[in-house]
Amino acid sequence: MLHMKYYKDYGLAISGLVMHHKVDPLEYNREVDDALPLDGLITSNPELRKLLEDIDTSKVKPWLFTNAYITHAQRVVKLLGIEDLFEGITFCDYSKMPFICKPYPEMYDKAEREAGARSSKDCYFVDDSHLNCVHAQARGWTTAHLLEHDMPEPPERASKYQIRDLGSLRSLFPQFFKSTLADRADGQRSSQL
Q1: Backbone φ and ψ of 64, nearest 5°
Q2: pTM (2 d.p.)
Q3: Are 101 and 92 in contact (CB under 8 A)?
């Protein structure tokens, strides 16, 4: 399928459509991404919200990094009910040609610059794309590849860390959370008494 080929080759299907078929990316975003009926498909996620609220923002800056255009990205995080929990967003700017997206180095440079990272070593990254994780890991970011629950493990790991749910970040990086797993377990035990 052409969509998957372009996604694998360029990191984003729209990149191939623009490059090879002269598709206008803003029109594509307006007619496809922004037109998708997501309201019934994506709903608020209280568990995700609780995880993000527990991040110690004095130690780490929550930052969105997406290949989506800004309007689609904002819509998705609003539907998830987490739009207020990030300090900023780096997105694929469809209005600038040629546009850049993950996994190209320029996109990671842009994210570091916009997030104000002092060094690549200061960046922690979670993504469901094997290719994006390979490139983030290679540039020195601490990377966790998020696998869907029904997805088989890849033959070769994309990064040092591989997780099946975002809650696993607590045990991988406890230094970035206000409460520890032990604190949470104590709280659950006391609420059961």
Answers
A1: -85, 140
A2: 0.87
A3: yes
